[in-house]
Structures are given as C-alpha cells and as structure tokens.
Amino acid sequence: MSNVISFYDIPSKTGKPWSGNTWKARYALNYKGIPYKTVWVEYPDIEAAAKQIGAAPTGKRPDGTPLYTCPMIHDPSTNTAVSESLAIAEYLDRQYPDTPRLLPPGTTALQHAFMTVFQPLGGPALQFALPATHRYLTPASEGYFRFHREKAFGKIMETWTPTGPERDVEWAKVKASFNTLDGWLQAGKADGPFFGGKIPCFSDFAVGARLIWYKLIFGEDGEKWKDILTWNEGRWAAYTESLKPYEAVL
Amino acid sequence: MSNVISFYDIPSKTGKPWSGNTWKARYALNYKGIPYKTVWVEYPDIEAAAKQIGAAPTGKRPDGTPLYTCPMIHDPSTNTAVSESLAIAEYLDRQYPDTPRLLPPGTTALQHAFMTVFQPLGGPALQFALPATHRYLTPASEGYFRFHREKAFGKIMETWTPTGPERDVEWAKVKASFNTLDGWLQAGKADGPFFGGKIPCFSDFAVGARLIWYKLIFGEDGEKWKDILTWNEGRWAAYTESLKPYEAVL
C-alpha cells in the first residue's frame, strides 16, 4: 500500500473521473493539497473494497442490507477509513489542520443544512443525467448501475429522459434549481463569488462536483451543457472555471 | 421622531413582543447593541406605517396587491427604511460595521440557503401555534389576523389544531423538525453550540425567534413548551437560555 491517502473513485470509459459524488472529495483533497493516490474501483467491487479498508456503509439498500459507496478514503498515517464526502471533509480538516479548511469554524452546521437543501435540488436533472451517465460506464459497472437504478426508478433507463414538450418542462425545472443556487450566491455577492465567500468551501465543491458531472456526461459541446453555461448571466461558466485549479487526478 | 432607529413590532395583550418574525430583527439589534426604540403597530396599521417611512413591501397578497409586514426599521441617521429580517440584518451589518456581524463574511450565501430550508421546517407547528397566537392579540389586530389567516388556510381558526390521536401524529412532526435542526447543530458541535459556531449568527436568531414565539404562545408552564424543552437532550432549553442576553425590549 502506498504511504499516501488512497482515494477510491469509480472509473469510466473516458479514463476520467466523472461521479458527482466522488468529485466532492477529490476537489477537497486537491484544494487542501494533501497527497493521495486514486484507486479505481468498479461499482460491483465497492463493497469488498470498503470492507477491506474498514470503511463504514453510508446507507441502506431498499432491502435493508448495508450500502457501501464511493467516495471513500484510507489514510495510512492514521490507519483510518472514511466514507461519504462530508465525513471525508471533516476528517481531512481535523487531521490536517494546517491545510485550508473545507468547513471553517462557524460554518459546519450551516454547511450541513446547505447539503440537506442542495441534495434534492439535483432531483430534476437525474432523468437527464443518469441515463447519460450509463453510457460512460465500463462494462464492469454498467450492468450493476442499470440494475440498481432501474429497480429504484421502476422503469428501464432508456425511457427516463423526457422528449418533446415534456422535455422543455422538465429542463426548465433544472434551470429553476440553478436559479435557487444563484439567488443564494447573489445574496452573498458582497462576500465573494463562493458559498465560502472569497474562497471556496465544501459546499462549493459540492456545487462544482455537480457541474463537472453534467459537463462530462452532457458533453462539453453538448446542447445541455452549453445551455447551463448561459444561465444566470454566465455564473456557472465562471464558477467551473474558478474550480479548475482543483481538478487534478492523482 | 427619535434620533435612534425606530423598530416596528406588533403588540400583544401581554405587553411583550411575541412575533416569531419580528424577534429575529429584535435579537439582531440587541446583539449588535445598536440603540433603537420600539414603535408598536397593530396589524391593520402596518401598511400605512410602512408607506409613511418608505419601507418596501415584502411580498404579495393572494390577490396580487403588495403585502407589508413587520419587522421593519427606520434609521434616521441615513433616512433609510428596511423591511424583512434578513434584509434588516444585512443593512445593520453594512451600516454598523464595528458591531458584531450577523452575517460574517463567508456565511451570507449559506445563511440565505439556511433560511430557505428553515422556513418550511416551521410548517407542522403552525396548526398549533397560529390559533394560540390569536388569543394573544389585541382587539385591534385580532380580526385582521383571523381574516387573512382563515382566508389562506380555508377554515376557521378554532378547527385547525388537531386533537386525539391526530394531535400526537402532528406534534411528532414538530418534533421531527427540531430533530433536523439538532442534527445540523450536532454535526457542527466542534465549532460550538450555535449555527454561527461559538457565537450566534443571524440563523441562530431565526431559530431563537421561533423558540421564543412558541414559549410565549404555548406558555412557559404549558405542556407543549415543556415538551420542547425535553427534546434533543435539552438542547432547546440551553439554546433559549443562551439567547437571553439579547431579549431586551427597548
């Protein structure tokens, strides 16, 4: 095992990381400048990898059995495994106090509240994003991803994305979710462009992770991504640009 | 007119302020130690008072006409009127930069997001709280309050509060809303007992205002308030206690 943090991420056909969940922790590690090494793990292998390093489950499956997810990390310097992005951020802030804070004092409870309201804001986009995601997975992950997502949504993935007039109605809901985020950032504009003010905090990396997920799966030249870049007077173009320094894949 | 800020609040039969909305701004003024004088204004007189000082409406009535609400302030030093608690907090932070911040840099956008998720958390308690509130209003406000609330809810106020087994089901939803708040504060406990960490911020005064409203209308010795004080290992008893230094009525 390496002597740096092992960071467990899910591969894609492109060879690039793509998950809107794992990117939160990757941004966090890069922002803090903590050395790490990516361990690529296919969906069907996440549970075994988690058990091997001792990472806790992050939820339950519909049948009540424990659910293991990426991101997760193993830090050899403390022999500690941590799963779930916010828990990873808290661990890194605590264990590496000389690095920039993801949860500055006086923002932890607020950022937890933010994540509670941010999570469902991603709902309307899932019908567009998940079927697109599916196309990027390697054969080893594809069947697993389809099986569990289709079980949860109750219909085959190819029928999820609306077309025709319904497509416009549903896409407008995605835009509305960004309007909500924009409203909060507008309100804080005297602080700076980020939820963290002049500098990003964990909540910004959660927003950035969602954006980079859309960018990858809708395609940099795709209509949907180009549409997003025009919203809220180009805020999301500037926002993604400003997080680029933290997009290394180590 | 006085040479200190005029703070417009709604009176009650008890002679004490009671509104869960105006308390947010009262806490804010007290916390910052900014001199002010309460101007008591009955519900039917809010609109005229707002227009007199030039305070903007804060929303629209169902029929589309502008809605004027308390709290509002008029600051004679700048001849500025501000309505709505968060806007008042932002004005006070900006205008009185040497006083403790309600929205410390790097928390403004997060606190706006917090208020978006905090507001509907108060929903389940309204069926218990609004009819109780009604009993505290002066005759000048009571008819107005009843008319507009009953129009919005579609039934007479005396039938709102559930009884029997339904009461327990609905009261459990109130408890669940406090569990959510407690969860966020638990997550931030290393920062301190407040959403602001070691010291309160605007979001804490919003929580405190909701609590002090319940305390007044359910009664300090009432079953419901005593119930709340036992929840989340006594967090709300400690929390209300810690905000007592900011409860002056000037």
UniProtKB/TrEMBL annotation, chains A, B:
SUPFAM superfamilies: GST C-terminal domain-like, Thioredoxin-like. Residues 9-100 form the GST N-terminal domain. It comes from the Eukaryota. InterPro entries: Glutathione-S-Trfase_C_sf, Glutathione_S-Trfase_N, GST_UstS-like_C, Thioredoxin-like_sf. This is Glutathione S-transferase, N-terminal domain.
